[in-house]
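In response to a reviewer's request, we include the raw inputs and outputs for one of the modeled complexes. The four entities were modeled together in a single run.
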Amino acid sequence: MAVITNEMDRSRCSVAGTLAVVGEKWSLLVLREAFLGVRRFADFQRNLEVSRAVLTDRLATFVEQGVLTRVPYHADGQRERHEYRLTTKGLDLYPTVVALMEWGDRYLGDGQGGPIALQHRDCGAPVRLALVCDDDHRLDGAYDVEATVRPRGTGRYRAIEKAPSSHTHR
Amino acid sequence: MAVITNEMDRSRCSVAGTLAVVGEKWSLLVLREAFLGVRRFADFQRNLEVSRAVLTDRLATFVEQGVLTRVPYHADGQRERHEYRLTTKGLDLYPTVVALMEWGDRYLGDGQGGPIALQHRDCGAPVRLALVCDDDHRLDGAYDVEATVRPRGTGRYRAIEKAPSSHTHR
DNA sequence: GGCTCTGAGTTCGTCAAGTGAACTCAGAGC
DNA sequence: GCTCTGAGTTCACTTGACGAACTCAGAGCC
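The model returned the following structure tokens for the whole complex.
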């Protein structure tokens, strides 16, 4: 099983920490399948065509990290087996998977939208990710955002100095 | 340089395709730095502590994929060098990086919010990712979304059959 | 003109991670 | 007793990452 360490620089932001959990090969594809409803080892393996050894490792890592839980079940005329279900912590990775999907749909497909469409369960309208602020403005992208760094151990933020925030290289 | 192929299953959704571009080790951390304003080889290398060989490969892959452009510049008393700037295609990966950051802030940090805060440039309010639908509803998460598969080559969608969508395993 | 300094790589030996194929193991059914 | 199946584990091989050393081009200094 993959051991999650602090070796990556987490001091600047949490991206590296999250990648320590979901950044290995196949991890995010396993999650994609989980979000599509897949729960069983054999189904993950069939859909992804990943080697059993790696799948075993990725599932075990997710269980260890609290992203999936291992739940016993007993199917018709079969012995007891386990299935893997998303926890709340795992469900909260949904935006990450959607972000990857939206980018792929925009830049890698045929321009017709990707093979999977997401709809609001209540109203049926297409669903997308949006950058919003707490004053309820809808932002256009990275240029509308200013990043500030909070020094370790304090509750205060200061502006980034050496690294200009994204607007400076428009 | 990494060669991007179609070998990963793109038929089910675009996640695998996007991961073919940004899924290798260090790729998303290079992008994180780019979004913080880093442009030069030596700065990426210093901030990430990644080996030069890998950094060279990741930057070259991004340039080849149109995520970064290589722009010559001439600094004070230095010979001409190149810097790497985000293209529109690259800037559109911002939600992916923010999604990773938000999850890390929520589950890996001290609960005080992560080391980097994002604010709306216009109004200063905190910025976050949200799932929204075209009827302007704000969704809570994966359970509010229904995924439908569009068969290859058609413009129509049908409901997923074998793999139940996420609400079925609440 | 020779020497050094620096940014931006490239090369290389070593080690970790992923791959496909073969092997294991436990229970259900015949 | 024999076979079947899901879920792994083991193994030989290949690919990818690592750190250290080497290269290369131009600027500045003497």
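As requested, we also summarize the result in words. Chain A touches chain B through 97 residues (CB under 8 Å). The longest strand of chain A covers residues 68-74.
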